[in-house]
Amino acid sequence: MISSIKHTSSSFTSADFFPRKRFSSTKPRFSPLPIIKNSTLNDSFSSKKPIHVSTTQSFTFSQKEQPKQQQLLQTQCNAYEADRSRPLDINIEVLDEQARLEAAQRIKIGIYFATWWALNVVFNIYNKKVLNAFPYPWLTSTLSLACGSLMMLVSWATRIADAPKTDLDFWKTLFPVAVAHTIGHVAATVSMSKVAVSFTHIIKSGEPAFSVLVSSFLLGETFPVPVYLSLLPIIGGCALAAVTELNFNMIGFMGAMISNLAFVFRNIFSKKAMKGKSVSGMNYYACLSMMSLLILTPFAFAVEGPQMWAAGWKTALAQIGPNFVWWVAAQSIFYHLYNQVSYMSLDQISPLTFSVGNTMKRISVIVSSIIIFHTPVQPVNALGAAIAILGTFLYSQAKA
């Protein structure tokens, strides 16, 4: 603590503090506070200025009661002239910079996950509403990709986001990724047009099993024993949920299975395509959406066609009203946003954390869809879903 000693008629002088004989080998000890500028003491030091004492350890006003050898040590104090001092903030708190950065990163990841899950839940709700009123999954899938592509083109044109620097090799390596992404996207939409959202996502939780099988048989990769063991609850849970599903539909089931397989190949091709590339996750998904749109559009016209779309659109407007247009716009916008956030989160977190987050996302989608659409669920069906999701979590931990 810093104290102040003011000069009075009965006070001591500076000579009482410092011995008359100067020792060149003895250096005055000053306060270690970084904001205090120590001034060099000289013979012209004035005792008429108030003195701020930075330490009073072993300090005494009497020289007679102590041996002469100790007088020097006890009368030597650390002081500086008051008019050369600066205000001190006694409530200085030294924060660990690394701890602050880690806390900020955890908050950022939490925001990514919460946004990702919320957008995915909203997309699945509006997507199912659209498909119930307008059962044309090929057009619905096309509109989702078109909306995302348009949003990113506008963002690049207005400089809201920086456009990626790409070349011909980038688009060549992106093509197989886009093919797999297109197949997986359409297959999942076809599945949700035939069965409940919860059932589609229960089957899609079996994606790790497809990943291990493809990597083992086609790529020759091997995994630890716990990884293979974690596939048992995944496969068993999905099978139990499928057998006990009240509204089971083979097209919906196969659509979810094909989507799993396609997204496994998408991930494999994506890893190869991203090697040595400096494109951000957001821009990478934007380019992927644009190429997938070019691939999907001719197939959508061939499978469904404008005549079917016109008739279906007219029927949906008659049944739902103008809100149907909002449903279509919402499912298209939220589809792009949730995928964009998921790709952006990959830039910030490890693959293991992403896998755990993806598992929790499926839980949130399954639970919310059951509540909103009042999907009937048998206890055995719920048990199968829980086992499959638990297996997915164990898989992510075993592969870490």
Structure description:
This protein is mainly α. It has helices at residues 14-17, 68-75, 97-133, 137-157, 168-194, 197-204, 207-217, 225-243, 250-274, 281-303, 306-320, 323-346, 351-373, 379-398; strands spanning 3-5, 51-53, 79-81. The chain folds into 2 domains: 1-94, no CATH class; 98-398, no CATH class. Strands 1-2-3 form a 3-stranded antiparallel sheet, with no helix packed on it. The longest helix is centred in the N-terminal third of the chain and has 37 residues, at 97-133. It starts with a strand and ends with a helix. Residues 1-47, 61-65, 68-75 and 88-92 have low confidence and may be disordered.
Write the layout of secondary structure elements.
Layout: E1 3-5, H1 14-17, E2 51-53, H2 68-75, E3 79-81, H3 97-133, H4 137-157, H5 168-194, H6 197-204, H7 207-217, H8 225-243, H9 250-274, H10 281-303, H11 306-320, H12 323-346, H13 351-373, H14 379-398
Antiparallel strand pairs: 1-2, 2-3
